Description:
alpha+beta; 3 domains; four-stranded antiparallel β-sheet; 8 helices; elongated
Amino acid sequence: xxxxxxxxxxxxxxxxxxxxxxxxxxxxxxxxxxxxxxxxxxxxxxxxxxxxxxxxxxxxxxxxxxxxxxxxxxxxxxxxxxxxxxxxxxxxxxxxxxxxxxxxxxxxxxxxxxxxxxxxxxxxxxxxxxxxxxxxxxxxxxxxxxxxxxxxxxxxxxxxxxxxxxxxxxxxxxxxxxxxxxxxxxxxxxxxxxxxxxxxxxxxxxxxxxxxxxxxxxxxxxxxxxxxxxxxxxxxxxxxxxxxxxxxxxxxxxxxxxxxxxxxxxxxxxxxxxxxxxxxxxxxxxxxxxxxxxxxxxxxxxxxxxxxxxxxxxxxxxxxxxxxxxxxxxxxxxxxxxxxxxxxxxxxxxxxxxxxxxxxxxxxxxx
Length: 367
């Protein structure tokens, strides 16, 4: 359970987030969309390369990207200077017709293609066991989970959802946060708190009430020593003001904490065949140590030859079998990144842990 000073700080921060969010306008739902690769980099994921289409006379739609005024001939007939294949359309309120080389498509229509979000639960924490308690299923050591985050693009309202946001989740080998599933649960807990605050505020609650709802949701079932509280609060406030989703947030927390290996980038959304949103595929592990050993251990094993990390769209994140793990030559694995991280935070973590233990003891004997 969080102590009252901690809870008060959480509520105050969430109140500020709720107040900021209240000022945001409701997102407009465009009836028609269009896209164009203006800079020739192979996608339309940059600002200004996607737009809502303008409704014209006769129920037709015009893409405003590269829109050009049509030219009238001596007989008063308009033609598009971009080519006769482009139709001249008249504005609904009247005026000079115009044309565009870019087509429009209905939101949610066949012209918009979205890749399904990778939903990888990872290796189960507990498998089948025999009468003696021995595991009878497949054992995976340092297993990971396939996840994706999205850089700035149309679907993220041009927010960079892959931005590292600091070491929110503490590594803590041997701590109570020992599995990837538990760490993902921590990430989801923060996301749940954020949604609770926003939902309550939109339903008419005051900022204080909304913040209280968010704080109660976020601390439920989460060990407060497993996350950096101040960073988690800032993280929530940032996501409240962006177009990022829950998996973006999970990757942001794990990646910023050094627990993810980036596999590559792929196109996750297209409009009429033009890429408008990219995604970055990752394998995320339960600890930074697990990620380091996976990155340096896989090249030593023939079983990963030809497979590597899979593809950006379908990352290959399985753990080592016991035989593979025993075959690793640890003299060839450089753990300096992990050791330096331990040395940098060891003293402060010891002091924080001692204070937490003393405070918990004092609270117990006073109650």
